[in-house]
Amino acid sequence: MTAPERARDPVPGNAFSWRFVTPMLLGSALNPVNSSVIATALVPIAGAMHLPVGRTAVLVSVLYLATSIAQPTAGKLSEEFGPRRVFLVGIVTVLAGGLVGGFAQNLAELVVGRVLIGVGTSAGYPSAMLLIRRRSDQAGLGSPPGSVLGALVIAGIVTAAIGLPIGGVLVQAWGWRTTFFINIPVTLIALVMAVAWIPRDPRAGTRRAAREVAARIDVAGIAGFGGTIAALLVFLLSLPHPDWTALAIAVVACAALVTWELRADHPFFDVRLLAANRALTRTYLRFAVTMLCIYTVFYGLTQWIEAGRGLSSQAAGLILLPMAVLSGLIARPVSQRNLLRVPLILAAICCLAGSAGTLLLTGDTPVALIVAITLVFGVPMGAGTSANQTALYKQVSAGDIGTASGLLRSFGYIGSIASSAIIAIVFRSHVSDHGLHVMSIIMIVVSAVALVLTLADRQLMSLASARRDAPARPAPDPAAGEPVPSALE
User: Fold this and answer.
1) Least confident among 94-108, 239-253, 417-431
2) Which of 49, 253, 324, 334 is most open to solvent, judged by the fewest CB atoms within 10 Å of its CB?
3) What residue numbers bound the domain in which 306 lies?
4) Are residues 341 and 233 both part of a single domain?
């Protein structure tokens, strides 16, 4: 369906009603929650399966891998086959993953369950972004629907911090299998909501041959991207004892991917777009750096709180809750007003300040000071994520936003994979104050790079100026049920 055809479609007076938005928010929350909820279950899983604790770390890395590949793939499939169809398939896949993992009897079955969960939850965010963009175009909105995008940030990123205490409570109360089984009731609710409340995708036209479909979704490009990310993940997780073979494979696969995509008619990883749209490339890099710092706090600082500070996993999760709450409070107004440059600068400064603050932590540090330092990271988590999402919304066309949104999440997971490598290096023998401080120095350097990238980005200034010069038109608030003008009005 072309853009003019979509613009003529009738849209309800309240285009972004709570019924339209709620299933997408629930679907988008599944991925970040599942990425963190497993953290508190790794030790019990190792005990139940009679495995070294280190081997269970594969349950974290396989979800990173599956998600980083499946997010842009889901976006591409949403553009070709319809976002509602992809969203529903994703929900069913998560349901299957919850069952497989919950009834698993060995590590291999657990890995299969986590892969299914990673692939299924990847459909939520890119399909939601495409649905929102299409509905916004149909409603004739001149600016991004900030309230909806803000809610998507809270559901898609901020909820990752909530997974830690949720996992601690579930494991302590009912055992590690509940970290898989919890997906079953949630996905059933999301499935019913999506079927009832998300409008059907337009009917496909004439049937296309399998070769044509494969060319349009660029199966070869997806395979090349997946191979590159997989090899890169193996190399990063091998540190501090580098697997040079994996790095060589990653380089060769990346070169082959770029060569193929430069010639593809419908590229999956659009190298030409990234080269031409440097502002979008900078958005991806900023997001990756932000996620590197945030995930280092999630997992690295959490490990230190448990092993270095001597607190329980449940207590470690609760310490991070204020950070999640603050990020949610910040994300909403930043998205509502479609703010860009100031939140991104503030996010980089707070990353820098928070990273410097972790240098002060020792085994005798009061819990209140730990909470205060982690609270600083709530600013980049809320403001930085919201502003980068708004920047992406403005930097790509409606037809590309599904894949572009998926790639945004992929770059975020590349940042999280890099954080895993950093944690593995600094805590390679044991968790210590010295290792935490080395990790802090790395985060300071990375945060400084993010600040320079943001200050030097002139495109952000022009986007901010365009926003100020545009006529005031408040975005709809789905929670309050505010109406959005129909395309027919």
Assistant:
1) 417-431
2) 49
3) 9-200+264-467
4) no
